[in-house]
Specification:
Layout lengths: L3 E2 H4 L8 H22 L7 H12 L4 H12 L8 E8 L5 E8 L2 H14 L3 E2 L9 E10 L5 H10 L4 E5 L2 E6 L4 H10 L4 E10 L7 H16 L3 E6 L4
Antiparallel strand pairs: 1-9, 2-3, 2-4, 3-9, 5-7, 5-8, 6-7
Helix pairs in contact: 2-3, 2-4
Length: 239
């Protein structure tokens, strides 16, 4: 399984410069606002909002920024007319890509994504031509620095993981979407530090590409991630 999500991408930029932090905070604020619009400002009854706020705090997003994003969601403060968007595409080496975002202008964002894809040998795909290659999964990422990989894998099996994937000294544990919060709570009770948790799209099968193509794909991902509207990028690239 393979997923390339925005929050995982920016995980290495917690100590980024102010301009980069500003971009990250802006993206997180949009997630919070949309979550409030969808299911209200009560974190006890809004799992998406709770997760978004927890993630924002991990990146030291100022409290006033979080509160402002919530108020935009409730309508207490004026804000952009935001909507969630999802696009399907193909990248270098024929990899399948799903791009998710939050924007105040869908047509502008679509044009920007087409332009970025064109620069890196990618192209838009018809609706449904890529999505069938992915399953919705709960995803929990754990750093293997403090606990041996084998021990974490055994623990993943114990807590009912449907699958797991080891990469870059990280272990991604996959669950059924409805089991995400329960599994996360069990791991936390066992004093396992969770790097991130979210509902992700996981590829049913991974694609192997050449090193040269992998370099172009990485540059494509980075260019997409720079776009203010783009929140998550998923692919079936084998990492």
């Amino acid at each position: 399984m393979s997923g390339h999500s925005h929050f995982k991408t920016v995980a290495a930029t917690k100590n980024a410069n102010d301009a980069k932090k500003g971009k990250i905070f802006s993206k997180m604020a949009r997630v919070i606002t949309i979550a409030v619009k969808d299911k209200g400002p009560d974190v006890a009854n809004n799992i998406q909002l709770k997760a978004a706020i927890e993630k924002a705090k991990e990146f030291n997003m100022p409290k006033e920024n979080i509160e402002r994003a919530i108020k935009k969601g409730t309508g207490e403060l004026a804000g952009e007319n935001l909507e969630e968007v999802s696009f399907e595409a193909f990248g270098p080496g024929g990899i399948a890509i799903i791009i998710e975002g939050i924007t105040d202008n869908k047509n502008r964002t679509l044009g920007e994504i087409k332009g970025i894809l064109g620069q890196y040998e990618g192209k838009m795909a018809g609706e449904g031509s890529v999505r069938w290659m992915f399953d919705k999964k709960g995803s929990i990422s754990i750093h293997c620095q403090d606990t041996p990989k084998e021990e974490l894998e055994m623990l993943a099996i114990e807590v009912g993981a449907t699958d797991f994937n080891h990469h870059d000294n990280m272990l991604d544990i996959y669950t059924k979407p409805e089991d995400l919060e329960k599994t996360k709570k069990i791991l936390e009770e066992k004093n396992i530090k969770i790097e991130s948790s979210s509902l992700d799209l996981a590829a049913k099968e991974e694609v192997v590409v050449s090193d040269k193509e992998k370099e172009r794909i990485q540059k494509l991902f980075e260019a997409l991630d720079e776009n203010d509207a783009i929140q998550n990028i998923y692919s079936n690239l084998k990492t």
